[in-house]
């Protein structure tokens, strides 16, 4: 009200304050956008279930956004690959071979392969499995790829 009444020295302070507020707003939006990009990357790295340690540090809105992104990605993957869909999260890096040797890091239980074979994944057991079937378990920390 003082600036409107004729005090021109306050106009510069008001403009400066307004520019500071706009800058702070841009910084907050950039920070939030970066967090969303990281949450989106977690879906591709960790799978559809976030570890509790990660989820603990997320706000309720971020968890909701993750769940909506997860559902949207699942809907898209089902629509692309015909009847059974196409899992785009499997081969993030191009495979060098179709089968890999893995070591089980913890007890997991029974694991079924496409040909109907059931394998018991016990701690410290080693198996020769199809890469695409065990890549998700490697990311979850159940299996470890043994490099020769």
TrEMBL record:
One of its GO terms (cellular component) is GINS complex. Pfam families: PSF1_C (PF24997), Sld5 (PF05916). Keywords: DNA replication, Nucleus. Its main location: nucleus. Residues 96-147 form the DNA replication complex GINS protein PSF1 C-terminal domain. One of its GO terms (biological process) is DNA strand elongation involved in mitotic DNA replication. It is found in: Nucleus. It comes from the Eukaryota. Residues 10-80 form the GINS subunit domain. CDD domains: GINS_A_psf1, GINS_B_Psf1. Required for correct functioning of the GINS complex, a complex that plays an essential role in the initiation of DNA replication, and progression of DNA replication forks. GINS complex seems to bind preferentially to single-stranded DNA. Belongs to the GINS1/PSF1 family. Component of the GINS complex. This is DNA replication complex GINS protein PSF1. It comes from Psilopogon haemacephalus (coppersmith barbet). The gene is Gins1.
């Amino acid at each position: 009200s003082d600036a409107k009444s004729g005090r021109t020295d306050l106009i510069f302070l008001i403009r400066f304050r307004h520019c500071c507020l706009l800058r702070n707003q841009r910084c907050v939006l950039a920070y939030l956008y970066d967090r969303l990009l990281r949450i989106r990357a977690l879906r591709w790295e960790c799978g559809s279930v976030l570890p509790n340690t990660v989820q603990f540090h997320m706000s309720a809105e971020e968890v909701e956004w993750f769940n909506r992104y997860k559902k949207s990605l699942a809907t898209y993957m089902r629509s692309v690959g015909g009847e059974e869909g196409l899992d785009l999260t499997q081969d993030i890096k191009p495979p060098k071979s179709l089968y890999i040797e893995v070591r089980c890091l913890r007890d997991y239980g029974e694991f079924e392969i496409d040909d109907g074979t059931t394998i018991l994944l016990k701690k410290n057991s080693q198996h020769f499995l199809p890469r695409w079937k065990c890549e998700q378990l490697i990311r979850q920390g159940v299996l470890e790829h043994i490099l020769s």
